[in-house]
Amino acid sequence: xxxxxxxxxxxxxxxxxxxxxxxxxxxxxxxxxxxxxxxxxxxxxxxxxxxxxxxxxxxxxxxxxxxxxxxxxxxxxxxxxxxxxxxxxxxxxxxxxxxxxxxxxxxxxxxxxxxxxxxxxxxxxxxxxxxxxxxxxxxxxxxxxxxxxxxxxxxxxxxxxxxxxxxxxxxxxxxxxxxxxxxxxxxxxxxxxxxxxxxxxxxxxxxxxxxxxxxxxxxxxxxxxxxxxxxxxxxxxxxxxxxxxxxxxxxxxxxxxxxxxxxxxxxxxxxxxxxxxxxxxxxxxxxxxxxxxxxxxxxxxxxxxxxxxxxxxxxxxxxxxxxxxxxxxxxxxxxxxxxxxxxxxxxxxxxxxxxxxxxxxxxxxxxxxxxxxxxxxxxxxxxxxxxxxxxxxxxxxxxxxxxxxxxxxxxxxxxxxxxxxxxxxxxxxxxxxxxxxxxxxxxxxxxxxxxxxxxxxxxxxxxxxxxxxxxxxxxxxxxxxxxxxxxxxxxxxxxxxxxxxxxxxxxxxxxxxxxxxxxxxxxxxxxxxxxxxxxxxxxxxxxxxxxxxxxxxxxxxxxxxxxxxxxxxxxxxxxxxxxxxxxxxxxxxxxxxxxx
Length: 596
Description:
Elements: H1 5-8, E1 10-15, H2 16-21, E2 25-26, H3 38-57, E3 66-74, E4 85-89, H4 91-108, H5 114-128, E5 129-131, E6 136-138, E7 140-141, H6 146-155, H7 159-169, H8 175-195, H9 203-219, E8 220-227, H10 230-240, H11 244-263, H12 266-284, H13 293-305, H14 316-325, H15 331-350, H16 358-368, H17 377-387, H18 391-411, H19 416-432, H20 436-446, H21 449-456, H22 464-479, E9 487-490, H23 509-513, E10 519-522, H24 524-530, H25 535-538, H26 553-565, H27 573-591
Parallel strand pairs: 2-4, 2-7, 3-8
Antiparallel strand pairs: 1-8, 3-4, 5-6, 9-10
Helix pairs in contact: 3-8, 3-9, 4-5, 4-8, 6-7, 6-8, 11-12, 11-14, 11-15, 12-15, 13-15, 13-17, 13-19, 15-17, 16-18, 17-18, 17-19, 19-20, 21-27
């Protein structure tokens, strides 16, 4: 029997507007439920704003749009409300797009012209749901919490409607419901920030809202790969998610650089080939790969050659090609710079830097671990490039990176775009100045102590590693030593015993247990023995396993100040907040200073 590829597999590209408005989807039970968090939402919003700036506001005649990647679906040629396409890869992206579109309906109703209100409402609404004879049906059917999704995202078209439904039906213990609500709230906040205080029903307001809709429905596009063969669908999913796809853009950049090197002579071509081989060696020799190869090239190029605040990875090829065409930069220079920064980045990952010591290693582990944001890389590259032989200055730059990531990334939750703008500009400032004080002043200006302290008071951790990092930093500040024999202790346990009086039933329980004011480090054996016990037992002097027996400073401080923080002997949500306010006031700006 012959193999007919066309029968097995078809692919086509579509704008998001065309794709959603002409098809129906469902997410199979064996796929992940809706899981996107703040970082993924921020990335897609950032891509939207960059698309608006690059394609629409610039009046560009050569619009690039934004490629959202590929999705894999199982189904026949056509999909409808009865015969939906099953999404094997791409469900998080498409679901998120419908949430953003649902939020947009609130703002469309405030356009100045009724005709525009109707036109854009129909355009966006048709991407979220389709009209049937008896009702509307959702374009996407979730595998978990579908009723909640339909009521909140599909049927509730106004912010007030959503809030009314949430008051009646929201279950804070459902992770999927929480993720859907968080996504909706994120986009409302992002849109409000984008339009700022522009009056509704004004020309400026209309332009802003229409730009979002145009970019979202027309300039966002996606590659759809469809098959009716389940086995092939999952093989496609595995293949499309392999790392090799990321290298294709690097190959394009290599080819354009080689092409221009060839024009300047055989020696130039030989140099570029040699340098590029070294670049690949440095990339492959990393112990881990927090940056892919196109990102290394992106960050190197951005701080060395671009004056724009932000440069997207997808744009790098076009920028480099244009610079080569205009002879702004020689091909060999590009290859040399990319190779040098790849080498510097590898040195940072491996700790192969002059003057490397335990203090720098702790900062490095924090940067690459609980604080990691890829956009800090250009500043680290620039710092190693400038201060490879100046140990003290380089240490200062690495400490600044760690502290800024903690202050603005983890605590203040700056957007991906804001962090990218900051670290790229900081790298340029470092590259162009011999006085490190000017760079430090730039950090200080962008991270004021008072606003950091205010945000610290309300901060929560999203992982145990973040909690360990924070408490460990304070412990090291107080005892001037690095402690490794520890477990993260939740004063109010994640699974409280009966002595806690059912506190876990509170709607705000999950929010409070992850607050910094509820965290300690204790020795592992003490942590195991205390488990979910009541606060009076954890503070007791009459047991071998309590905070009293711990060598950690913050345990002793908790005992000392327990009378101030407890509510009639109870460790309450208010107790957690009082301790967190105290930690913010006493430690935040001292432990994570902006002065290097």
